[in-house]
Amino acid sequence: MCCEIKRRFLLLYATQKGQAKAIAEEVCEQADAHGFEADIHCISESDKYNLVTEKDPLVVIISTTGTGDPPDTACKFVKEIKNKTLPLDHFAHLRYGLLGLGDSEYMFFCNGGKIVDKRLQELGAQHFYETGLADDCVGLEIVVEPWIDGLWLALKREFSSRNIKEDMSNNLSAVSNGVSAVTVDPRMSGACSLDSEIQHLKLEDLEVKATDTLSQRPANVHSVLSVQNTEPSLDRSVPPLSQSTLDIPALPPEYIDVQFQDSTGQELSVSSLISDGIVFHIPVTKAVQLTREDAVKTALLLELDISKTSFCYQPGDAFCVVCPNNAGEVQELLHLLGLSERKECFVCLKIKQATKKKGAALPVHIPQRSTVEFILTWSLEIRAVPRKAFLRALVEYTSDAREKRRLQELCSKQGASNYNSFIRDASICLLDLLHAFPTCRPPLNLLIEHLPKLQARSYSASSSNLFQPGKLQFVFNVVEFPSSPSRLVSRKGVCTGWLAELVEPMLQQHKNSLRTKEEKSSTIKVSIFARPINTFHLPSDPSVPFMMVGPGTGVSPFIGFLQHRQKLQEEHMDWKFGETWLFFGCRNQDRDYLFRDELRSFVENGTLTHLKVCFSRDPPAAGEKKPTKYVQDNIRLYAKEVARVLLKERGCFYVCGDAKHMAKDVNDTLVDILSTDAGVDKLEAMKILATLRQEKRYLQDVWT
């Protein structure tokens, strides 16, 4: 009997930080077990596929970056399909399914996927499977896992439908040629319609266990749980989960072979980590703590000397800082993995000859001739929250039966809530797992296969090159992750913690006012590169009025805006300049009012027309009728002015800062203001706001 021919579908992914790629690879791995062949490509690899001539079903997995943009790898694709000269039936032959990844803490949730989905339909493509939108705020897997599970039935249904259409076409062709079609496929009869075929597939899907899951029962319930009434934790299970049969993912095939070689030669430069763009190694010339010691958060300002480089920027531009993992965590990881004595060895990577992984390729983010220590320091995101596929792989390198079982639970469908509570929501990383499961000792190749690339961190410029030639300033809060039951030690942010430690001597010098002329020429350097896409800029016409909303460190790009505007006003006294507004807020006026003196100076010299501030933790001022705690409260107080600037004077509105609460609240406030002023319902007001965004008059630079 002939082997069943696997049915092909085209699988495209567009990723920014590796999430979409990892999910696409998971789909690719599962496809084989379901009788399909996934032809997988990055959406940027346009030379390897052609949607114009594509005949098979298309599956797209795409993330969102920034405040709602498609990932960089999809920019060319999106530009091409947005071509207005394309006919409306350009993709009429395409049948597709799409999975979008996003974060609902950002206003334009899953917008990268929505843009592609909408445009494909506008060009005639039709769904064979409903679009899934996965939310990283609550856990991607909540949508991703059932979406993948349902994909196989949808593909079966799609191919079944195509077979029926082909049979109909063949029968019609036979009749038209005068041939009597005696034999009729049962699927063609009215009694056995396509709907019954679909129902049959559904029943079949329920009856047969998918081959990509394994049933696991604890060999000894008492060895897993000695105390029945205890609470679950990262390393401890309780009934009913501890007594359940588990559906766990298929074991991801290993595909990288690691060989260690004695190190000889020069150490790699961080420039080798960046494949696109020029990396600049810039001296830090100034470091200042902007907040008081008793403030809730510590905000630092760093100044870089770019005068001897070709690096250039505009106010509002963002740039990326290349940062390493924490040195102490790297050494701890080396110790736990038994690699301390090999940390200076070169690592030679090859694809395993017998691997079952389709399309296996060496990671491009690990330079050739890297040492073990370099890889763990500069190449891999060792703080990444482990995906379930990684947990499944770790099971095979865990010797204790109880620990094995708990890892299986955490990656199983039955243990989804445990995974969310103790791993995803707790921001657990590999180090935490190795401490919680002491007999787990994965080899280096497993880390390389499952940990994502260590991403450079993005920061907004808080200065103007016109105002301070040769200088680039930026501001950040030092991120703090407190200890928890799952994470026994507190940690600082990967980049902010590293920067704070790096400039600590300069901060002490500044605090003690002991800096000499020689000490100012610091040898401390950081590596940066420009971010290619950014529209968060001042209006090109200086007469256009604009409003800025920037609480906390969100004010930093607006300092650059105002510096630039001040210099333009000094140099072009005959120009007409529009009015400027800044809504600023912080917790306490005396502890974390950033750039207080600079902002007052901007008001005094006429650069800043209106400065509206609020302090959420300070008591209301004496005689204050309506206390304003947050920036959106002040925006409501000046609703008429906001509507005038946006609607009558066609001004711009900028928002910078926290996406989770502030940006959403400001957006809702704007909807209310526009609804009231224009006399329309909230839906129409939202459309007005969407139009402002399309016109690049409502701009956001927000983060979580």
Automatic annotation (TrEMBL):
It catalyses: 2 cob(II)alamin + A + 2 H2O + 2 H(+) = 2 aquacob(III)alamin + AH2. Its EC number is 1.16.1.8. One of its GO terms (cellular component) is cytosol. Pfam families: FAD_binding_1, Flavodoxin_1, NAD_binding_1. Residues 9-152 form the Flavodoxin-like domain. Its main location: cytoplasm. InterPro entries: CysJ-like_FAD-binding (IPR003097), FAD-bd_FR_type (IPR017927), Flavdoxin-like (IPR001094), Flavodoxin/NO_synth (IPR008254), Flavoprot_Pyr_Nucl_cyt_Rdtase (IPR001709), Flavoprotein-like_sf (IPR029039), FNR_nucleotide-bd (IPR039261), NADPH_Cyt_P450_Rdtase_alpha (IPR023173). Keywords: Amino-acid biosynthesis, Cytoplasm, FAD, Flavoprotein, FMN, Methionine biosynthesis, NADP, Oxidoreductase, Phosphoprotein, S-adenosyl-L-methionine. Its cofactor is FMN; FAD. Residues 277-539 form the FAD-binding FR-type domain. SUPFAM superfamilies: Ferredoxin reductase-like, C-terminal NADP-linked domain, Flavoproteins, Riboflavin synthase domain-like. GO terms for biological process: cobalamin metabolic process; folic acid metabolic process; homocysteine metabolic process; methionine biosynthetic process. It is found in: Cytoplasm. Gene3D superfamilies: 3.40.50.360, NADPH-cytochrome p450 Reductase, Chain A, domain 3, Nucleotide-binding domain of ferredoxin-NADP reductase (FNR) module, Translation factors. One of its GO terms (molecular function) is flavin adenine dinucleotide binding. Forms a multiprotein complex with MMACHC, MMADHC and MTR. PANTHER family: METHIONINE SYNTHASE REDUCTASE, NITRIC OXIDE SYNTHASE-RELATED. This is Methionine synthase reductase. It comes from Gopherus agassizii. The lineage of its organism: Eukaryota, Metazoa, Chordata, Craniata, Vertebrata.
